[in-house]
Specification:
2 copies of one chain form a homodimer. With 445 residues, the first copy, chain A, is of the alpha+beta class. Chain A is built from 11 helices and 16 strands. In chain A, strands 1, 2, 3, 4, 5, 6, 7, 8, 9 and 10 form a 10-stranded mixed β-sheet that branches. The longest helix of chain A is centred in the middle third of the chain and has 21 residues, at 282-302. At the A-B interface, α8, α9, β14, α10 and α11 of A face α8, α9, β14, α10 and α11 of B.
Amino acid sequence: VKNRFFQDIGGSVTAPQGFRAAGVFCDIKRLGTGKGSNKGQKRDLALIVSDVPAAVAGTFTTNRVCAAPVKLCADCVARGTARAIVVNSGNANACTGRQGRRDAQAMAQAVAEACRGGEISAREVLVASTGRIGVPLPMTQVKQGILDVAGLLGGGAAQARQASEAIMTSDTRPKEIAVEFALGGKKVRLGGICKGAGMIQPGMSPTGARPALQSLHATMLCFLTTDAAVETKFLQAALNDAVAKSFNRITVDGDMSTNDTVLVLANGRADNPPLTARAGDRRQFQAALDYVTLELAKKIVLDGEGVSRFVTVRVTGARSPGDADAAARAVANSTLVKTSWCGGDPNWGRILCALGYSEAGVEENRIDVGYSLPGRKEVLYSLKRGSPTKVSFGALCKITCTPAFDLHIDLHLGRASAVIYSADLTEAYVDFNKGDVTDPSSLGG
Amino acid sequence: VKNRFFQDIGGSVTAPQGFRAAGVFCDIKRLGTGKGSNKGQKRDLALIVSDVPAAVAGTFTTNRVCAAPVKLCADCVARGTARAIVVNSGNANACTGRQGRRDAQAMAQAVAEACRGGEISAREVLVASTGRIGVPLPMTQVKQGILDVAGLLGGGAAQARQASEAIMTSDTRPKEIAVEFALGGKKVRLGGICKGAGMIQPGMSPTGARPALQSLHATMLCFLTTDAAVETKFLQAALNDAVAKSFNRITVDGDMSTNDTVLVLANGRADNPPLTARAGDRRQFQAALDYVTLELAKKIVLDGEGVSRFVTVRVTGARSPGDADAAARAVANSTLVKTSWCGGDPNWGRILCALGYSEAGVEENRIDVGYSLPGRKEVLYSLKRGSPTKVSFGALCKITCTPAFDLHIDLHLGRASAVIYSADLTEAYVDFNKGDVTDPSSLGG
């Protein structure tokens, strides 16, 4: 990253001061292969703890069917401060009714008890879950896991890596980031981990109210830590802005999960003058948060289930931001467009078709469609003002057959624009998700 | 079909009196393998002609990017009478600008000239196209084809079969139907052919205005003929009703085409007293039209690209018809739900997730989810009031592993209901549509 005031330091949630993390295997899928820390099994329980109370902000799925831990987190975020985040994978604790709410609460309580000496109250513990829907959590395993993971907490990169692995479901690799920058004369750090893979088109809001722009849906989870001192209200506003430009702009399969959650803890250990909406250096913090969330969001799409191509859909010239968003999402979620990307096909007919049925205002004879390699200025147009150009099919394929490209759509009707980060739809996605009814344990959430 | 006043007579568009049809191969994809009637190649040009002027009604795609022939048909339907329908497959004549409009017009003109002696004016010729988007029609081939097909017109089942074959694109089989019933003391018949396969979630209206209910999209084409005498205004109203309950209730891949068209010609040769909105026997006609359009619509889903399972999504207990429709479409178009059907998985978590992100009002702890075999009353519920039932996984799989089943969702919030006819999403669909950029002729519309 050039010309930025912050530096990507290649770390994770433990890069900021005063945060510890760990991840263990506790057999949440009840494979029956033992308890305790990882014994060659995939880790499934993560804990992140701040040494001191931290300001907290969060955004959550707007799915009306929303998991028990999401409700617990929303309540905790409303109180403004938190100390810990406990996360399990393998079971979403969604559609689990009253038992689900009790279990989420019991997870918070177990963390409070396991972190004895840290003086953490259950009300300061955030809980997140991802995995199968509709199955009660195996609380014996979860509670043992919490005892184990609390004993392994540490501030190193290795422990953060354990945590980033423990939150994975169908992800093929952990997703981590950390940046460092100056704030009020102090060195501050911002780190994060996330997971995604399927059921991904988040449409999150701080309160559960639907965002103004149409937005649809995987379970994506993201946990951010910073040692900056940030006033809670500003932290929430900054997170809302960042999420609107990152996680709420991605789609893998167009399905919005019941569990999507982004949480940020700001523990103030960097001793900068607390950031508020009026602080002069709030923009630096926002820019760093924007960068971290966008990089993590892109990692989710790149590692989406069966994904072979990452496509950035850029719509310009729309009559309104709502139109730009609707046009970009229609293209980014069209089954036919996504399968054409799978084959590296620079098809514009399906793109025009999707634009035409979107809720956006479009006029066929004004539309430009072009392709570019990411970060490159040269756009090769296949369509200009609704008419095919002379650009050769082969030249277009040289771009669309690469693992990542940008699709440029100019509607030439106004000045609004929108970006959606999307991916192709592949046979591997179908194969992964179709399950095998002869093996119920293979069936996804 | 039991207890119905009409009889399914196993015919097609030539079953009603005074209609002739034919289908030929004229090399629209320019394979360079010759002209004239079918020489072992797939037919690609169909013609249906009424011996006398017929009342006409139509519904058309509400895609804002709409093909040239659709506009031509809408104009002809507005004039109220027509004599012929010419249809080509292999090329959609969509996104072809002014040339496209000239070509559609030239097809109508060529039919008028080819049917010399029939005294058909170009203004009485309806035109429909399906296939690749954005490629100009090869008019030399098309005009020769029209000359050829006009010479082969006949009133037999074989000629109607040719027409039904000629309109196919990725369809694997022709789709035909005809019924017979009494109207005003006269025996009347209603016949039809259609095609579909991919880019299928029609949302048609008579005028191009969006239907009130959310509706999205393949090219589906349907051509209906009847020898009943029907007043034009009532014919359009009856068609609107029938399409709302049939073609606008299906989805294969959620993509609404640029070319979706349903046309009906009523030539009055049965000599019944002309049907109007006040006629006593209008309900018989409506019921027959409803039956014919729904049977044809289901055939499209059953023969959808890569489809291995036909699923009827039945939502009841919604607060409003709009909510019922939104809930049913969210489930019927969810990538994750459709892939779970592919594996025969009676997954309810993904269904609840889709309901939750739909625009419909839902309350998790009220929702029932059940399965039944088509036409059977017994519903096996996997979920009642948001809680899993004791019905075994194996018992559910016995239903969901069959080639066709009904999914029952009761929201228990109101009295509105909706049905959507959907299908699974398979690896075969992705394989078929991903194209092969090394063979541009394989790339779909």
